[in-house]
Amino acid sequence: MNVLISQRAQFLIPTKLIFLVDFLLLALLISSFYLVNKMPNQVDGEGDLKSNEEFKQEAERIAVNCMGKGGWECYKQAFSELTEKNGLTFTEQVLYAIQDVDPFLRNCHILAHSISQAATRKEPSRWKELLEQVNIYSCGGGFLHGVLETHMSSEPGFTITADFINNLCSNLSADEKKRMCSHGLGHLILLEKEGDLSSALPVCSGVKQDSTGMAVDCFIGLFMEDHQKLALSEHEIAKAPIFDDQYVQKLEKGCFSYDGIAAVACWNEMSEIYGKSYGFDPALIYQKCSQAPQEQERNRCFLKGVALMSVDYSFSTKNKLLSICQPYNQAGQEDGYKVCLNYVVTSLMYYSPLYIDRGIVLCSNVSDQFQENCFKDLGNQLKRNIHKQKDRETLCKGGPEKYKHYCINPQVI
Question: Which has the closest alpha carbon to 302: 72, 317, 330?
Fold first, then answer.
C-alpha cells in the first residue's frame, strides 16, 4: 500500500468507512434490539452497567440535541463521546434506547461503526478482544466492522493478505463473526488497492473456502465496494458512480466474465445496483437477476434485494410487504417463496425487533399454507436475541392468537 493510501487510511478510515452499510449479503440476517427498560444486556462490558433509566435519560438527551439539528454527524459525535466516557457496553444500550425516541435510528449500522471505532481508539491494544466482545447480531454487523477499520487505520503501510484474513477471521468464535470479518476486509482490500479490482481479486481467492462462508463474503465485500464505491469515493480514489442503464450494463458484463464464487458474489451485489438505478421494484429486480447464468447466482442476486426491500421505509404497508416475494409465487416456485419469506422476516430482525410489526403483518396476510412457518421463522429469529419470554410477549402482542405462541416461545433451530 503506497504512502498516500496509508496516510488517507490513518486519518479517514475511522470516520469515512462508516458508510459501508454492508448488509453482509444480508443473508446473515440476524440481529438484536432491546426495548428500553425491558431488554437484557447481551454484551460483556467494562465494569458495572448503570440502570435502564439512565440509558433512557442519555438517549433522550442525545435525541433532543440531534433530532432535526445535526443529523448523522451530530449523532456520530454524541455516541463517540459517550463511548469514550462510559465504554462500549453502556453506549450500546443507549443506542437501543434511542430507537424508541427516534425510530429512524433502527437502521443503526452507521452509529454502530462510530461506537466501536471510539472504543477501539480508546483501547487500541484490546482490538482482538473487542472483535469477540461486540454484538454481531445487531446493527448489520457495524460494531465488528468499526473495530476492524480502526485497527487497520492505526497501522499505515500494512497490507491485507489472504493469510491475514484466514488467521484473523477464522479464529473468531462464531461463524457469523468469521464471515463479517472477511466481508469487512473485502471492502478494505479494494481501498488498499486503490480501486484496482484485478489486483484485489487474488487476495479473496486465497481465503479459505470452507463451510464458514469466509471466502464468498470476502468477494462480496470486494464487489460491493467495486459496484458502489462507497469508501473509494469518500477517499477521493474514485468518483461515486451514476446509477443508470449504462453503468448497469458495464457491471453486468463484468459479472458474466467471472465463474465460481466470484461470480456468485458479483451477482449478489447487482440487486442493489438495480434498485438504485431503476427503483426497488421486486418484479423488476427478479427479472434482472434472472439473467445470471447459474441458479445460485440468480437466487443470491434476488434475495439480497429481498433483504434490502424488507427494511426499506417504503415497504411498510401490507401490500408492499406481500409484493416482495410475489415473483416466486408468480413463477410457481413454492420452495423459493418459502425461502423468500424467511429472508424477509430475518431481515427485519437483523436491524431491529421493533420491525416485528412488519413481520406480523406479513405472516398474517400470506396464504394460509405459509402462515405457520412464517410465524415460526419470525419467532425463532426473535428468540435468538430477545431472551426473556415476557419481553417477547410485549413484542408479539399484535400477532394473531392462533400463532402467537410461535412468536413468544418458539423452538430455536
Answer: 330
Q: What is the pTM of this model?
A: 0.78
Quick count: other Cβ atoms within 10 Å of Cβ 96? 27
Find, among 327, 366, 339, 385, the residue nearest to 30 by Cα: 385
The helix (run of H) or strand (run of E) holding residue 392 is helix 389-395
Contacts of 196 (CB under 8 A, 6+ apart): 190
> What would the grid cell of residue 325 be?
416475494
- What letter represents residue 5's amino acid? I
Winning range, highest mean pLDDT, from 14-23, 49-58, 188-197: 188-197
Report the alpha-carbon angle 343-331-260, nearest 5.
Answer: 60
Alpha-carbon separation of residue 181 from 169, 178, 207, 233, 282 (angstroms)? 6, 5, 12, 22, 30
d(CA 281, CA 305): 9
Question: Which residue carries 464487489 as its cell?
Answer: 223
8 A C-beta contact, residue 290 and residue 298 = yes
One-letter amino acid of 86 = N
CB contact at 8 A, 109 and 21: yes
pLDDT band of residue 388 (cuts 50, 70, 90) is: confident
